[in-house]
Amino acid sequence: MMDSPNTSTPRARPESLADLFISFTMLALQGFGGVLAVAQRELVERKRWFTNEEFVEEWSVAQIMPGPNIVNLAIMIGGRYFGVPGVLAALAGMFTAPLIVLLSIALVYAQYASHPGVIGALRGMGAVAAGLVVATGLRLGSSLKNSAMGIALNTALGLLGFVAVALLRWPLVYVLLGLGSVACVLAYRKLGQEASA
Predict the structure, then answer these.
(1) How many domains is the chain partitioned into structurally?
(2) pTM for this one?
(3) To the nearest whole number, what is the mean pLDDT of the chain?
(4) Residue 172 structural domain
């Protein structure tokens, strides 16, 4: 197995519990309608705690665990660098400021929910959030070239997942179990072939 090209340079990491708290607070405050795009930009491009490939791997694990993806990612990062105090700092960063903002917005929204301007603004935010997710997916797609299964097989599995969930309306848990199992077996075989070669 080849060494990673980045083994000679030390990996950036959270400097302290306060850095972890502030980082996840800023990430949470930017994540309107979906946090994937913001998380990728903050953790990969700005903080450089991950490469794109590492981020995709961590996000994949976060997605299959129960609970919100970004909370799972915060738990994994906090636990990796600082143990239980890191988990608590990351979770506090994820929840404290957004909770205050959410409660404030809820009070205002209750009075103006039926206003046409508010309804239009919420629809516009939904479209922007969908665009951010698609753009991030395209940006992270380049990391598939380093995947054991290759771009073609990963794309085929992604399209099958889309068809199963979006078009056929199959329950997500069955699609994850089915296609996830197939992907694990295929990746295991491919990695075994590469190791024996």
Answers:
(1) 2
(2) 0.59
(3) 84
(4) 147-197
